[in-house]
Fold this protein.
Amino acid sequence: MHRRQFIQWSALGIPAISWKGFNKQQVAGNKPLVISTWDAGIAANSAAWKVLRSGGRALDAVEKGVMVTEASQNCCVGLGANPDRDGYVTLDACIMDEHANCGSVAFLERIKHPISVARRVMEKTPHVMLVGSGAQQFAIAEGFPLESGKLSEEAEKTYRNWLKKSEYKPVINIERSGIPMASTVPNRLPNGEWNHDTIGMIALDAQGNLSGSCTTSGMGFKMRGRLGDSPIIGAGLFVDNEIGAATATGQGEDIIRICGSHLVVENMRNGMNPENACKAAVERIVSVKGAAKCKEIQIGFIAINKQGQYGGYCLQKGFNFAVCYADDQNFLVDGKFILS
Ligand code: ASP
């Protein structure tokens, strides 16, 4: 029922309880709940859900969840991902809990689970961010094995292909293109391309607490040393346990410019539901960058609020996110978009 209908119905003597009932339905959400970016989110959500359904903490869920994606060699997150333009895979990740504790690592090489190193930074150091060789040194001291620096087979092929032109020209929604792979490989589009590069995950646990994680190899063939939004608290991820949580994917430079995930949470604080909060942040990007330039990029936000409502929005068609709130409810939602 729409508001106008309600007003008309009220005028006809239908009691106000209808409108109250409608309102309640609109705010009712799901608890526990976990959502994450792109279709790799389905497998990641399953792992997170195991933690949530047994009453576990959202923080543990969002770490365990994205570790699945990081470990997948068939994916554009983690050590199997595309390298930078010099041929090195460099990883960025951050994590944030219900007490506004946060930890982050960036430009980290040869460590399989950057998200777990980010959590250790949060829990074991007086700092929020560690980068580069310092982050790697800390990881090794914490017992994380140093992996080989060799590219995965798929990344090696993609990189060799890329070297022919050596052009930094990210293609929206597509991370690894033109590489023939088995059709059973997850996250592969029907035309043989990969469609994502980052997993951002946010969760609400049975106790009503929120946490989030975000992990990526960044934009493929970036300049050496480049960081995007994903390891930056407020840009790639933000959690406010009173209000909600948000995470981002896509062109990191433009997400940073508007402090994207923080903006989404502030929009929710100002009364928007998660979907509208994400939409308003995407609109802000369009107003800062201009619609014409926005056609060349993709950005997607997803958000949940304290009531267990969820939503997402993106610049253009092609972004999706995975939502899970029951053993048999783990599904993909196509992001609504503002450019056509
Ligand atoms: N946001 C990531 C970055 O800019 C990339 C992505 O999500 O595709 O590094």
In short: The pocket of aspartic acid is lined by residues 197-198, 216, 218-219, 228-230, 249-250, 252 (CB under 6 Å).
